[in-house]
Amino acid sequence: MRWLKIPFSGFKRGALKMCLAILAITALALPGLFFRPENPPVGLGEISYKILIDRKSGEEIDNFDILEYIRSFETGLTEEEERELASLIYFESMKYGYDPEFILAIIQIESAFNPTAISVVGARGLMQIMPATGREIASEVDIEWEGTKTLYDPEKNISMGMYYLFKMLLKYRDLRLALVAYNAGPGYVDGMLKRGRRLPDKYVDKVMGAYEKIKLQGL
C-alpha cells in the first residue's frame, strides 16, 4: 500500500501521534460496536453493509488514489492542502468504517470539492454543513467553534461531516434515511416518517449514482 506522509495542519507532533494512535484503534473497533453481519444497517440492501463495514474496498484505496480523484476537480486548494485533504478523508473513513469512495461521492455531490461552497439555504464547505448544525457538532467532537468560518476549514468540515453522517446512521440504522437526514435534517425525516409520507429519493440517488461511477472508474 502506498502512503503519503502528510502532516495535518494545526497539530503539534505529539498531538498528531496520539491522534493517529486513536484512529488506528477505532478503525478496527468502532463500526463493529454498532453493526454486525447478523444485524447490519438497512436501506439500500446489501450495499448498505458493504459501504459501512466491508474493508476490502478501503484496503485497496490509499491516500494517493484519493488525492488523484480530488485533483480532477477545481478545488482552489494548494497542492499541500489537497494532500492533507486526501489524508484526512482516508483516515476519517477508516475511523468510521466508511468506504472512502462513498465519502468521495458525498463530497462530490455536496460541493464538488469546493471548500468555500455555499448552498442556497446557507450550508457551507466541503460537506455542506449548516451553521446551526456545525455549532452543535463542534461541541460534540471538541472542535473550537469560531462562527461560520469554521465550516470553511477543510479539516474541520470533513471531521464534522463524517461524524454527523455516522450520528444519523446510528439514529436511523438505515443508510437511505441517514443520507436524507444528512441532507435535509433529522427533523424533516422524523416529520415525514410520523406522517407516513414517502421520503424523496433525489439526493440518495445522486450520491449512489456518483458512488457507482467512482467504483467503475476504479481508483
Automatic annotation (TrEMBL):
It holds the Pfam family SLT. Signal peptide: none annotated. This is Lytic transglycosylase domain-containing protein. GO terms for biological process: peptidoglycan metabolic process. GO terms for cellular component: membrane. PANTHER family: MEMBRANE-BOUND LYTIC MUREIN TRANSGLYCOSYLASE C, SOLUBLE LYTIC MUREIN TRANSGLYCOSYLASE-RELATED. Residues 90-196 form the Transglycosylase SLT domain. It comes from Candidatus Zymogenus saltonus. PROSITE patterns: TRANSGLYCOSYLASE (PS00922). InterPro entries: Lysozyme-like_dom_sf, Transglyc_AS, Transglycosylase_SLT_dom_1. Transmembrane segments: none annotated. Belongs to the transglycosylase Slt family. One of its GO terms (molecular function) is peptidoglycan lytic transglycosylase activity.
